[in-house]
């Protein structure tokens, strides 16, 4: 069984300053990495002889409009079937420069996951073979999951946030 | 005779080659739209296929026709109202989605669900798995030209839906259970119906297997059709029966047991070549295993409460609300969505009908999730479909798609 401590130490040794914010909410190792090192990290975890964290479970993003310089957070979930061990990696990006390298060379499944993330959040995956919208129509000119687009009509006055949600 | 005629035809068609320009064959390929509303795609998604005669040269998928922005809607809804969104993802096995969501929130809130509720959940999830697999396999039969097996199985799905009705009042979009347990105990009628089902279903399934498993026509249509190697399947993010058919024994129920799955004895069937026939066989065998689990669960159903002792999250009984001050307060707060959710982020996965169904929930302490992402197995593995059908015929592609069990609701969220 791998422990979070052990994996974290190995990753810090390998990547040094590029990795930070280590945490393990609900026993799932979580840390963030710079966008320059995300692909080497995915490659390293995939090819590590004992960890073999070779299955990409999910890619998604989160929008934090109130943290300047770290507005967009791309979240990778990866899984090692051999060790039954999961890890969550985050990459923070500034809103004005939402570029991140693609992981499609490491995992074929990243293709649509990245397209979905682009579609919903506007994160641009550099080097992606076919970065188009996937769920929404091509003509759409905004990325709907960003927090500046409220779900309900902002001009309505009969529903106040204090009673009916944020 | 034919060859003579052909010879003459070609000879007469050959243009006089007195100039240097070679004969140009422009666009020999035929573009074929398979979908969006094609009866054989079982859902609304489009495939634009380039065909060379009967053979598929390349395919391009368009999805999103029933994208309903669940992730966005979820950011405004209290936790308990999100269950209805999960119903509408994989609508062939809604209870699994419901329970998966409840378990995610329970993990965040730190609620320990009593054994009885866990066992009831296991029973309902396995019934849902049977309902899911029997549709997939039945429809696969229809797509290969055998309607009978489908009709046999569909009668049994009706019985599963009657059990759902008995447990939660709904049939398709079940909204079953609550955060913290079930909304009601299994009634004697429900227990009787479940027991009747596990008595009756083996006979039906065996008959179905007799019709298909060694059927010459069915095997011709499915063996070595739409195969994928284990390595490619893993790289494409396959999970569930489709991955197991390729020979990888990954099952969330065993790797990360939830809801007391570790207490049940069952096998994980695996295939070898990952082709349509293997997927069919894996699903059939999984139905047998699900029956085993249901049998163990219903026979060892623990006594005790069917909901957790968490009054701030679980709705109090209605008669208490009329008499008891605390119950009234809790009732009001829960219905208005004013529960105190801690700050945190959770990833919880369950074994859905099609594979690992994950819920990634970020809570900032508000009444609704700050961010909720569904890891939909269909969405991730459907991207392998062009690769699986390139070089095969159109009829093979339809069978392959059918056996992948792509559910449009889950694909598009």
UniProtKB/TrEMBL annotation, chain A:
It is found in: Cell membrane. It comes from Fibrisoma montanum. Residues 32-153 form the NADH:ubiquinone oxidoreductase 30kDa subunit domain. It catalyses: a quinone + NADH + 5 H(+)(in) = a quinol + NAD(+) + 4 H(+)(out). Belongs to the complex I 30 kDa subunit family. Its main location: membrane. It comes from the Bacteria. Keywords: Cell membrane, Membrane, NAD, Quinone, Translocase, Transport. Gene3D superfamilies: NADH:ubiquinone oxidoreductase, 30kDa subunit. Pfam families: Complex1_30kDa. NDH-1 is composed of 14 different subunits. Subunits NuoB, C, D, E, F, and G constitute the peripheral sector of the complex. Coiled coil: none annotated. It is a peripheral membrane protein. NDH-1 shuttles electrons from NADH, via FMN and iron-sulfur (Fe-S) centers, to quinones in the respiratory chain. The immediate electron acceptor for the enzyme in this species is believed to be a menaquinone. Couples the redox reaction to proton translocation (for every two electrons transferred, four hydrogen ions are translocated across the cytoplasmic membrane), and thus conserves the redox energy in a proton gradient. GO terms for molecular function: NADH dehydrogenase (quinone) (non-electrogenic) activity; NADH dehydrogenase (ubiquinone) activity; quinone binding. The gene is nuoC. Its EC number is 7.1.1.-. One of its GO terms (cellular component) is plasma membrane. This is NADH-quinone oxidoreductase subunit C. HAMAP family: NDH1_NuoC.
UniProtKB/TrEMBL annotation, chain B:
The keyword Ribonucleoprotein does not apply. It is an enzyme of class 7 (translocase). One of its GO terms (cellular component) is plasma membrane. It is a peripheral membrane protein. It catalyses: a quinone + NADH + 5 H(+)(in) = a quinol + NAD(+) + 4 H(+)(out). GO terms for molecular function: NAD binding; NADH dehydrogenase (quinone) (non-electrogenic) activity; quinone binding. Its EC number is 7.1.1.-. Keywords: Cell membrane, Membrane, NAD, Oxidoreductase, Quinone, Translocase, Transport. The keyword Metal-binding does not apply. Residues 143-412 form the NADH-quinone oxidoreductase subunit D domain. It comes from the Bacteria. It is found in: Cell membrane. PANTHER family: NADH DEHYDROGENASE [UBIQUINONE] IRON-SULFUR PROTEIN 2, MITOCHONDRIAL, NADH-UBIQUINONE OXIDOREDUCTASE 49 KDA SUBUNIT. Belongs to the complex I 49 kDa subunit family. NDH-1 shuttles electrons from NADH, via FMN and iron-sulfur (Fe-S) centers, to quinones in the respiratory chain. The immediate electron acceptor for the enzyme in this species is believed to be a menaquinone. Couples the redox reaction to proton translocation (for every two electrons transferred, four hydrogen ions are translocated across the cytoplasmic membrane), and thus conserves the redox energy in a proton gradient. NDH-1 shuttles electrons from NADH, via FMN and iron-sulfur (Fe-S) centers, to quinones in the respiratory chain. The immediate electron acceptor for the enzyme in this species is believed to be ubiquinone. Couples the redox reaction to proton translocation (for every two electrons transferred, four hydrogen ions are translocated across the cytoplasmic membrane), and thus conserves the redox energy in a proton gradient. NDH-1 is composed of 14 different subunits. Subunits NuoB, C, D, E, F, and G constitute the peripheral sector of the complex. This is NADH-quinone oxidoreductase subunit D. It comes from Fibrisoma montanum.
């Amino acid at each position: 069984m791998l422990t979070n401590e052990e994996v974290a130490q190995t990753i810090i040794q390998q990547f040094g300053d590029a990795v930070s914010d280590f945490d393990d909410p609900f026993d799932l190792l979580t840390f963030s990495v710079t966008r320059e090192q995300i692909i080497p990290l995915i490659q390293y975890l995939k090819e590590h002889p004992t960890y073999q964290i070779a299955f990409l479970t999910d890619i998604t993003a989160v929008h934090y409009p109130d943290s300047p310089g770290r507005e967009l957070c791309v979240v990778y979930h990866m899984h090692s079937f051999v060790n039954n061990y999961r890890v969550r990696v985050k990459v923070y990006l500034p809103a004005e420069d939402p570029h991140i390298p693609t992981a499609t060379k490491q995992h074929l499944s990243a293709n649509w996951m990245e397209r979905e993330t682009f579609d919903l959040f506007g994160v641009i995956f550099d080097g992606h073979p076919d970065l188009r919208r996937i769920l929404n129509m091509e003509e759409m000119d905004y990325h709907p999951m960003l927090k500046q687009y409220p779900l309900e009509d902002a001009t309505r006055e009969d529903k106040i946030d204090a009673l009916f949600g944020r | 005779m034919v060859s003579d005629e052909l010879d003459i035809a070609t000879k007469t068609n050959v243009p006089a080659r007195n100039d240097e320009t070679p004969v140009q064959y422009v666009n020999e390929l035929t573009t074929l739209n398979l979908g969006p509303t094609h009866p054989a795609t079982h859902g609304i998604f489009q495939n634009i296929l380039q065909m060379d005669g009967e053979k598929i040269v390349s395919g391009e998928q368009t999805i999103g026709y029933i994208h309903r922005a669940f992730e966005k809607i979820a950011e405004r809804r209290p936790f308990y109202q999100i269950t209805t969104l999960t119903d509408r993802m994989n609508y062939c096995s809604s209870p699994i989605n419901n329970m998966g969501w409840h378990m995610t929130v329970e993990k965040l809130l730190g609620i320990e669900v009593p054994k009885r509720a866990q066992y009831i959940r296991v029973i309902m999830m396995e019934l849902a798995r049977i309902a899911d697999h029997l549709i997939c396999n039945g429809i696969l039969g229809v797509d290969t030209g055998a309607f009978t097996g489908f009709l046999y199985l569909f009668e049994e799905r009706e019985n599963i839906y009657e059990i759902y009705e008995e447990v939660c009042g709904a049939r398709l979009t079940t909204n079953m259970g609550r955060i913290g347990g079930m909304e009601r105990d299994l009634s004697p009628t429900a227990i009787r119906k479940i027991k009747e089902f596990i008595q009756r279903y083996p006979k039906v399934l065996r008959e179905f297997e007799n019709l298909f498993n060694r059927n010459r026509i069915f095997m011709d249509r499915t063996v070595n059709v739409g195969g994928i190697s284990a390595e490619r399947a893993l790289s494409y993010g396959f999970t569930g029966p489709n991955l197991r058919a390729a020979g990888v024994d990954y099952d969330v129920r065993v790797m990360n047991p939830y809801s007391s799955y570790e207490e049940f004895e069952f096998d994980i069937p695996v295939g070898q070549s990952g082709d349509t026939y293997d997927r069919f066989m894996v699903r059939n065998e999984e139905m047998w295993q699900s029956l085993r689990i249901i049998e163990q669960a219903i026979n060892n159903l623990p006594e005790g409460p069917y909901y957790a002792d968490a009054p701030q999250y679980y709705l109090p009984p209605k008669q208490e609300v009329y008499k008891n001050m605390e119950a009234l307060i809790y009732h009001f707060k829960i219905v208005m969505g004013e529960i105190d959710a801690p700050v945190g982020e959770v990833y919880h996965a369950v074994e859905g009908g099609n594979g690992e169904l994950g819920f990634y929930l970020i809570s900032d302490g508000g009444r609704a999730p700050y961010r909720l992402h569904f890891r939909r197995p269909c969405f991730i593995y459907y991207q392998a479909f062009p690769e699986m059908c390139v070089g095969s015929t159109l009829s093979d592609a339809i069978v392959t798609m059918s056996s992948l069990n792509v559910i449009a609701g889950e694909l598009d969220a």
